[in-house]
């Protein structure tokens, strides 16, 4: 399995893969993964298969299993990195020994109805398609062998199938306006409003309050937006040739921490990033002629883990960008991002008419001569 998504990884509790056998196949054994159910194997007397179900469901093994159960790129608890973050960790593999399937490419039939949970819904899988057979090299790399058959299955992800509400929201602020544009109310739906927890609640000290549930039901901090994740974009400083932005990501879910998180931002000035201070950064080029999208992610062993809601439930960094004097402006919300994605999910932005705006007397680059003259004149009148 290859996760070719540039900025959406599959996090804990990991992927779940399923399919329907075309005939009466059984799985004799597996290495690197296991099925969740054995099924009815009563017709087998001596050797009992690993799984006899017509529709097996396969999950990855956990780290630390015995070596004789492992396979290359297996045993990570179903967690797969995004391709843009770590291509080597974006692969998962296992081996299946299948019985009663046939012995030639004429008698072997392709499985159908593939399903993928990663870890929840949202993926839709197409039919299996026969492709040129995979080749294998012997250990001395002098001989090549060929698989009997090889087929590919492609699964695509849709946020609209995964959930009916966004899972994150965005707020804005700036140095030139005291107004803080907060996330829209009920940006992520208010179904959990009655079950949320206030930040000063004594229940938070109970043992096990942070333990995740099997169905991944969140325990959210009570907020007006009711989102598990909030991304804050603050326009911090405006220099002569550069400008600086502070980005803060806050977790409001008491039952989940986010490993290998990713943040994708679309903004026209990301084509000239000078320095990112506390995050790793990689430009994304969806179109070769447009460089306006970038991916931020945590530094390994430093801030690649976003802790659960609480005092440690946030990560932040600053970004220094060089100005393009033909396009740079602080007017009409130009300094704020066009789109924001957290872990591959698009976040809800505030309405454009609520963005922090420049005061009437302010200029994005300098103080006007008329304003300075009025101030001097007023000072002279007062002294007189």
Automatic annotation (TrEMBL):
Keyword Nucleotide-binding belongs to the record: no
Location(s), subcellular: Cell membrane
Membrane topology of this protein: Lipid-anchor; GPI-anchor
Keyword vocabulary terms for this entry: Glycoprotein, GPI-anchor, Lipoprotein, Membrane, Signal
InterPro entries: COB_C (IPR056900), COBRA_pln (IPR006918)
GO cellular component, one term: plasma membrane
Keyword Lipoprotein set for record: yes
Coiled coil location: none
Domain COBRA C-terminal as annotated: residue spans: 167-356
An example Gene Ontology biological process: plant-type cell wall cellulose biosynthetic process
Family per record: Belongs to the COBRA family.
Protein known as: COBRA 4
Organism: Olea europaea subsp. europaea
């Amino acid at each position: 399995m290859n996760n070719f998504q540039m900025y959406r990884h599959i996090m804990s509790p990991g992927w779940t893969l399923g399919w329907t056998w075309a005939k009466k196949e059984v799985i004799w054994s597996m290495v690197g993964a296991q099925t969740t159910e054995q099924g009815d194997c009563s017709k087998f007397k001596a050797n009992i298969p690993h799984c006899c179900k017509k529709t097996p469901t396969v999950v990855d093994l956990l780290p630390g299993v015995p070596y004789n159960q492992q396979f290359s790129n297996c045993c990570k608890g179903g967690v797969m990195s995004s391709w843009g973050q770590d291509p080597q960790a974006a692969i998962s593999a296992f081996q299946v020994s299948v019985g009663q399937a046939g012995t030639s490419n004429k008698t072997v039939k392709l499985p159908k109805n593939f399903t993928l949970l990663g870890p929840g819904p949202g993926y839709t899988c197409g039919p299996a398609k026969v492709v040129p057979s995979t080749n294998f090299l012997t250990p001395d790399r002098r001989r090549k062998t060929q698989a009997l058959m090889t087929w590919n299955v492609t699964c695509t992800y849709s946020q609209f199938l995964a959930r009916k509400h966004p899972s994150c929201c965005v707020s804005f602020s700036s140095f030139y306006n005291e107004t803080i544009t907060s996330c829209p109310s009920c940006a992520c739906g208010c179904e959990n409003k009655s079950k949320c927890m206030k930040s000063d609640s004594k229940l938070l000290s109970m043992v096990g309050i942070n333990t995740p549930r099997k169905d991944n039901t969140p325990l959210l901090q009570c907020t007006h937006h009711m989102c598990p994740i909030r991304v804050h974009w603050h326009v911090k400083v405006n220099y002569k040739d550069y400008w600086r932005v502070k980005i803060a990501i806050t977790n409001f879910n008491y039952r989940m921490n986010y490993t290998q998180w990713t943040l994708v931002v679309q903004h026209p000035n990301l084509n000239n990033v000078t320095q990112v201070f506390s995050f790793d950064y990689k430009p994304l080029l969806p179109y070769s002629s447009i460089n306006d999208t970038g991916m931020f992610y945590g530094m390994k062993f430093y801030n690649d883990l976003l802790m659960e809601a609480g005092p440690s439930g946030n990560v932040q960094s600053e970004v220094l960008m060089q100005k393009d004097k033909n396009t740079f402006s602080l007017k009409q919300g130009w300094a704020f991002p066009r789109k924001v994605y957290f872990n591959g999910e698009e976040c809800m932005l505030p309405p454009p008419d609520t963005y922090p705006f420049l005061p009437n007397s302010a200029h994005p680059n300098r103080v006007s001569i008329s304003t300075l003259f009025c101030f001097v004149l007023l000072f002279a009148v007062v002294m007189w």
